[in-house]
Amino acid sequence: MFAQAAGEVEIDMSRAEVERLAGEHGDAFYLLDLDRVTAAHAEILAPFRCRHPATVVAYSVKTNYMPRILQRMRELGSLAEVVSEVEYQIALKAGFQPGQILVNGAVHREDFLASLLLQGVRINLDGWYMLDKLHEVSRAHPHRIFRVGLRLSYPVPDAEVSRFGFDAGEDGMRRLADWFRAHENCELIGFHSHFCFAPNRLDAYRARIAGLADAAAWFPQAHLRYLDLGSGFRQGDDGPSFAAVADAVTGVLEERFPAGGRPELVIEPGTAIVGHAMAFVCRVYDVKTVAGRTLALVDGSSHSINTMGWRTRMPVEVVRAPGASGGEGDREAEVFDVVGNTAMERKDHICAGIPGPVSPGDYLVFDKIGSYSCTMKPPFIHPCPAVIAREQGRYELVKRRETVDDFLRTYLF
User: In the beta sheet, which residues pair with residue 330?
Assistant: First the structure.
């Protein structure tokens, strides 16, 4: 099933701007709008801070680890939420200090995990092998206090049960409580959950935060510093506003914890911050009609925009060339489909149902593709295009176009 053209393109680019950038950086490029990143950060944080001042954003690095985005998050006071050693190193290179990084993730090498524990980096443990490593490290350093959080898995209405974290059922929580009682120099300071596919409904958000609050009852002696709601926040008109979500979540905190004793609230937005902040711009090379379908061939692919295959609706706009004509389908194309530049017959049908006309030499702008796009583009057939950042009308190259040397850098000849 192809993604369908739907929604409004919000990133504004003139034909002259497109041609100038294409002339400098190639017929395909990504545009990162930093003004939108900054605005989206404020849009999600402000309503939570208004209701619960002790709210912290931990930006989801996996969503888009582009250093320029991470630098902006750091400038705005966010933590970096990482799920691997590689992401941890990327966050450090982007300027975050270890104390500004929150580590999640199901798989970490033992020596990396030990180094995090010894440094006191904020970490949410995901499984019993991590507690085994904490046991080993804490016994080797009996005079030190080790503070950790736990990721939990529990039911949320109409959501899949997460495979990540500790089972928050009675048996699982009793076992965890026993473990911490037996480890006096290990302190439990927070709980974490992440339900990226939970319904975008207020009852689901309430259930998510209530599940974390429920877990606190098993540890009456613990001094909880934070509850980490994870992400799954969505931009757009489909669902409640961030203000309504903040009301629902903070309302549960007010019910369950006394004033003056409420924990810090951590949220981990990714797509809610960068999803609408990037566009992919690509040149139309050819237009033809095959079996009654008008096909526009572009310098881009599904790997450039939709590697995960999650996007079923795409805002697309045609930037017409002056006096554009000449494609065999141009005169007839009330709608057209877009196909990509790889040799993949089935996979590289990018989008269907775009209003025409379209001609060779036009450019297409695919908007709102900031999450899981350029950082997931594999080194396959064509290189990843350049990324150009725009802020207050000024343009800056923040990632050059890849070359064959980038493809082959890790191979040995």
Answer: none
